[in-house]
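Internal QA ticket QA-208
Title: Verify multi-chain structure generation after dependency bump
Assignee: T.L.

Test input:
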Amino acid sequence: MGRHRIAGYRDCEAALRNRDLRQALYDAGKVVMEGVLLTLHGEEHAARRTVEVRVFRRNFFHYYEKEVFPRTLAETLAPYLAAGGGDLLKIGYRLTVNLTADFAGIDRPTRSAEETEHLIAITRKLGEGATLVHSTRDHAEVSAEVAAVQAQLRERFFLPSLARRRALLAERETGSITDAELPRDVLMTLLVGNDELGLSEDQLLREIAFYLQAGAHSTANAVVHALWEVLEWADEDEDRWARLDDPVFVQHCVHESLRLHPASPEAWRTAMCPMQLAGIGPVAAQDRVELDLFLANRDAAIFGENADRFEPERTLPATVLRSGLAFGIGLHTCLGRELDGGIAARPGTDTADAQLGIVTLILVELLRRGARTIPHDPPQRDTNTSRPNWGRFPVRFTAKGAS
Ligand code: HEM
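Actual output:
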């Protein structure tokens, strides 16, 4: 089996769109990722994705961003504001676990701190399992820990959530409730569409676990990276701080930060047949093709000579997103892209109408509260993974009324 690597933006983009390349990054993370949307291929992938995108019907993003999330944000931040600060990674996980649990269809009946902490611990461990390929820990040990939390997720959260949705489905069949009264989440959508898909209970659990961790981990990291970049960029410059009063500009900053720090610094694919690939040349069937998304997102031919720098005002070719390939492209394009990244707003857009995305909403609020790093307790990198993530990110809230 040959191995190839490409790093040019356009070459990576073409490879991500190539239907004869199948997902290969999560082979090591099978314990979490086997049989979930991101690892399926061809017709099986298309059928599952067609059902799951139905969650987004009826203006889901607008509803979530304007109605559900502002409450989650205020409730989650309140204790940290009262304490004057906290670890932004913890805050990020609290915020995003609620987000992905809502989206996946995991009920949290008590809404207690203990319940949220348990769900966060489960989610973080599932994330560690999914990205096992980059783990610096003993793989067998991590897999055993993951199996243990999968069992906890099943008993405490998944089975009750499944039972409640099955009961609602039965009510819908007798006509006592309508489709519009069913929860708007992946689990409900999969149950409604399960005649087409025929998923077992075990497959449903895996899919829900995948959603829980995929969205939470990447969103929490995106928030932390974006705050770090913005604080470094604005520093002592008053004009720059003034620009950050505009949420549309903050959205540009988030997308620029996502470009520099893609949640998946690389994508791997396996060739399904012999082919020619731009940036490589001939590729044999079963060869592995590694896409360096970290470098592709810093390709000077696309982003300019200062591609390595955080420059939220850069101009881009019309066919390139400010976030580059951070949300993927083609067959496996991120389903949470609009939820997290929003829709790129033009300068001057009325923010009441704009769909800014969850990461921007969080960053806007953090900046409004005067979130700053702490010089004698600086952020630290995560040493359990070769991915360039933060392990701790202490912040204090300096705005008046924050504590
Ligand atoms: C800043 C946050 C996020 C980033 C950077 C991100 C990034 C990505 C990337 C790069 C992929 C494609 C991977 C590949 O091609 O191999 C992907 C796929 C996916 N993401 Fe996200 N993601 C984020 C948030 C979310 C959220 C919040 C959700 C759900 C609520 C989500 C759900 C998914 C799903 C379901 C897929 C698989 C799509 C498919 O295989 O058809 N993501 N994401």
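Spot checks passed. DSSP finds 16 helices and eleven strands in the chain.
Status: verified.
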